[in-house]
Design goal:
The protein has 136 residues and is of the alpha/beta class. The chain has five helices and seven strands.
Length: 136
């Protein structure tokens, strides 16, 4: 079974991401701080990190930098409410260079599902629609 770590400081966003990941049948751990994410990544193996960027330090970008230095094979998906156009060109390039995928909030549940399926190499037989699931 694939294992995913979700890092987001917003409880509602952790819940939404968790609903999508549960539908995909993956094991999920949740953390609300970058410090907790790094602690988990030091002691456990994850197939994917799903992270927000903007939160208290260490933020998601700091966690991505840590991964790049200590576990460069770790896959990561950034989900962020801040548009990249608000970032400097250098920051945009760094964020995109450190992650394997990026979704802008708000996102459709099916877009998150598609991104996770692609990054984890899962086979998906269902399409997420709103709050429900539709067979394909």
């Amino acid at each position: 079974m694939k294992k995913v770590l979700v890092l987001d400081d917003c409880p509602n966003m952790r819940h939404i991401i968790g609903v999508v990941l549960e539908c995909l049948g993956v094991e999920i751990d949740f953390v609300a701080t970058g410090k907790d994410a790094i602690a988990r990544l030091q002691t456990q193996t994850y197939d994917l990190l799903v992270t927000d960027i903007y939160m208290a330090e260490p933020n998601g970008l700091s966690v991505l930098r840590w991964i790049h230095q200590y576990n460069p094979l770790q896959k990561s998906l950034v989900v962020t409410g801040w548009g990249l156009e608000e970032e400097s060109s250098k920051d945009q390039q760094e964020i995109l260079g450190l992650c394997d995928g990026l979704l802008q909030k708000p996102f459709e549940m099916d877009d998150l599902s598609t991104a996770v399926v692609g990054l984890l190499g899962l086979e998906r037989k269902e399409k997420l629609v709103g709050n429900g699931i539709q067979n394909r």
